[in-house]
Design a protein that fits this description.
The chain is an alpha+beta fold and about 150 residues long. The chain contains four helices and seven strands, in the order αβαβββαβαββ. It has a seven-stranded antiparallel sheet, with helices on one face. A hairpin with a 5-residue loop joins strand 3 and strand 4. Helix 2 crosses helix 4. About 20% of the residues are buried.
């Protein structure tokens, strides 16, 4: 009996595809979150320590506080970094000052995050706003839209 000169092909195990599925450029782009810039505007004076305490004690979020600079780095459970920094009211333009006065704003914090973290930000800042009043809004020319808390 002659030995077969062609080797037996190796087949992949059942249920395992031979070729990994390719991720298209559009599909990859859909899973990428965009960075968003927001403001938290409070009707009462609120410190970064108070915000950090609410985030960590009431919501179990990991925060790092630089109290002397009024800056918070918030690391979400998804590993995303959210930066929160107090803004001085006099740093805003005259038009912006009129907006701040019309809404009786005492404290302003800028928030830089991924848009996928917006629901978490709204949930946590609703608790901050319950204590200090205020709202979240976008960093746009007219601060619109204002996000409900």
């Amino acid at each position: 009996m002659k030995k077969n000169q062609f080797p037996k092909p190796k087949l992949p195990p059942r249920g395992v595809p031979q070729v990994k599925p390719q991720v298209t450029e559009n599909a990859a782009r859909e899973n990428v979150s965009a960075e968003v810039a927001l403001f938290y505007m409070a009707e009462q004076s609120v410190t970064a320590r108070e915000i950090s305490t609410i985030l960590s004690k009431e919501f179990g979020q990991k925060t790092e506080l630089w109290e002397e600079f009024q800056i918070i780095e918030w690391i979400t459970e998804f590993g995303h970094s959210i930066d929160i920094e107090q803004m001085l009211k006099h740093a805003f333009s005259e038009e912006d000052q009129a907006f701040l006065e019309s809404y009786h704003v005492e404290s302003v914090y800028s928030i830089t995050a991924l848009d996928s973290d917006l629901p978490l930000i709204q949930k946590c800042f609703a608790k901050v706003a319950a204590k200090s009043g205020g709202f979240l809004c976008y960093d746009t020319e007219d601060f619109m839209p204002i996000l409900p808390l």
